[in-house]
């Protein structure tokens, strides 16, 4: 048997290629749209012929590459009969088997995350009749299980997920290897480790969600402390069910004048460079979301409408193309072009570059004590805020900031703070694009504040770091 795991840490996705060493037939499970070229090259290099493209479910966090792969290879797309898709496909049922020479893919219907969800047990008949491994998609994760609230009511989904886990997946032998569809970084669960594989036995004994024996307690547990929902999920699901998905188009290189004209017509400039590069100089009105700082797609999805035309500013063409591919993964097909020559070309063409004012934590403390009008906005997550924050600060998590801008006073001086300075730079760029004039980004964030032993506040008491 041939087996290959392909992971992407951006939003914690995993794709799998399974094949026969005897016949050269292969199947790909859960391919993202940005992996099409890589998968085709891998198939050619390994001498494999793609027979099946298997989707464990209609994904809500990323766009699939099943259409492009099917067009390029002639492979059959296989998905559960409940998926309700508009494209030609093989409708799968529980206990169906797809054959690749000595390898058999047994379909296990595991609703919960979504009604059509399946897991795929992989059997190598040359080794024995028991599954060697199981591809669990968005059902069983490493140290966690999938969230149940993306397609149906959370309680109903959790009940179905409980049955799927205990009646189907935990019925497999303890030695069965487990490879999930999501790893750390995904909003489809609460995984916080960097492992890429596990086993049924290990999860049976050590997974907190599987230790809950009562269905009622499981339902309650699964609907507590869930991460924010994947952004743009309705659009992504619709694309994945559609009769066709547009491929990633060539990226046009635009002059500074063209960028300025399109920006005036309503396009959003998205600067994907590092926060340091953005702070030093950027296109006025640009939004900063660094490509290589983690959670790029989730941040873009929460802060920018999928309908807004995007213009990229990057440090290189290669970075711009990677950003375009990353945006395509979350259904953003409206990238209108990139600034040719980067910010240097913008300035050489005679356009102004805007900088982002910043202050140290010591300066922030001085301003807090001496300027009563100063509003401090903390954009960290709720658990970070609860662990300790600056007294008097306003808490608005980054992902909710666009909806809560009206709760802030744009005329007052405003300091943004997060954990390290990354998220506050993104937040500052959003406010700056809305013509916030007296704006400061706090260098080093709460990490620097605590290192300087400045006072922090909790709901119970004031403490020192």
UniProtKB/TrEMBL annotation:
The lineage of its organism: Bacteria, Bacillati, Chloroflexota, Ktedonobacteria, Ktedonobacterales. GO terms for biological process: glutathione metabolic process; hydrogen sulfide metabolic process. One of its GO terms (molecular function) is metal ion binding. Keywords: Hydrolase, Metal-binding. This is MBL fold metallo-hydrolase. It comes from Ktedonosporobacter rubrisoli. The keyword Metal-binding applies. Gene3D superfamilies: Rhodanese-like domain (3.40.250.10), Ribonuclease Z/Hydroxyacylglutathione hydrolase-like (3.60.15.10). Residues 263-355, 370-458 form the Rhodanese domain.
């Amino acid at each position: 048997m041939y087996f290959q795991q392909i992971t992407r840490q951006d939003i914690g996705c995993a794709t799998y290629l399974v094949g026969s060493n005897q016949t050269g037939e292969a199947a790909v499970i859960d391919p993202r749209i940005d992996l099409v070229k890589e998968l085709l090259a891998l198939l050619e290099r390994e001498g494999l012929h793609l027979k099946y493209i298997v989707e464990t479910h209609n994904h809500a966090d990323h766009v699939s590459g099943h259409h492009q792969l099917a067009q390029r290879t002639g492979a059959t797309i296989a998905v559960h009969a409940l998926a309700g898709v508009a494209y030609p496909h093989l409708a799968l049922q529980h206990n169906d088997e797809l054959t690749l020479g000595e390898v058999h893919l047994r379909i296990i219907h595991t609703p919960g995350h979504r009604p059509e969800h399946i897991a795929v047990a992989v059997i190598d008949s040359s080794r024995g009749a028991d599954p060697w491994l199981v591809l669990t998609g968005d059902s069983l994760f490493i140290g966690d299980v999938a969230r149940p609230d993306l397609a149906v009511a959370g309680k109903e989904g959790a009940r179905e997920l409980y049955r799927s886990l205990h009646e189907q997946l935990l019925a497999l032998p303890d030695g069965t290897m487990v490879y999930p569809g999501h790893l750390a970084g995904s909003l489809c669960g609460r995984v916080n480790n960097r492992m890429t594989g596990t086993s049924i036995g290990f999860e049976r004994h050590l997974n907190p969600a599987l230790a809950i024996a009562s269905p009622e307690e499981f339902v309650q547990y699964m609907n507590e402390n869930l991460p924010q929902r994947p952004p743009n999920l309705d659009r992504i699901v619709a694309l994945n069910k559609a009769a066709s998905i547009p491929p990633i188009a060539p990226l046009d290189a635009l002059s500074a004048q063209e960028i300025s004209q399109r920006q005036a017509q309503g396009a959003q400039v998205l600067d994907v460079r590092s926060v340091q590069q953005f702070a030093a100089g950027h296109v006025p009105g640009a939004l900063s979301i660094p490509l290589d700082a983690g959670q790029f797609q989730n941040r873009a999805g929460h802060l920018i409408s999928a309908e807004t035309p995007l213009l990229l500013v990057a440090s290189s063409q290669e970075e711009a193309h990677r950003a375009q591919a990353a945006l395509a993964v979350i259904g953003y097909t409206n990238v209108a072009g990139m600034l040719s020559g980067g910010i240097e070309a913008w300035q050489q063409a005679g356009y102004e570059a805007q900088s982002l004012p910043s202050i140290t934590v010591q300066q922030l403390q001085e301003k807090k004590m001496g300027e009563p009008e100063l509003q401090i906005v903390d954009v960290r997550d709720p658990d970070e805020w609860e662990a300790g924050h600056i007294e008097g600060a306003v808490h608005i998590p980054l992902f909710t900031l666009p909806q809560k801008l009206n709760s802030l006073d744009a005329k007052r001086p405003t300091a943004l703070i997060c954990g390290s300075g990354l998220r506050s730079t993104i937040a500052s760029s959003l406010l700056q694009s809305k013509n916030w004039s007296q704006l400061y980004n706090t260098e080093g964030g709460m990490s620097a504040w605590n290192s300087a032993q400045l006072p922090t506040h909790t709901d119970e008491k004031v403490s020192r770091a």
